[in-house]
């Protein structure tokens, strides 16, 4: 695990990006669906293509700071071998994807060119 920082809630909003591939798409789909049902968060599509700065297939989950301390340990416990990028929503996309990031599992390269 490449967790350099322990996730802490210090921002007004967050995204979690669950990364997966062909072999793990079904597991990731079930996990993201469960997040939506259990927590009531806005869960994006399970993209089986590259989207934005993400270099692997992904699904985005949006949530607020009030849920951070319950959601992050829950997600970390249930993500299996999947990598998850957790980042702040500050309005500065570059900082959000670099300075304000946490990883659950191994980090995945982010394409910062468009940010």
Automatic annotation (TrEMBL):
It holds the Pfam family DOPA_dioxygen. Signal peptide: none annotated. Keywords: Dioxygenase, Oxidoreductase. It comes from the Bacteria. GO terms for molecular function: dioxygenase activity. PANTHER family: AFR070WP. This is DOPA 4,5-dioxygenase.
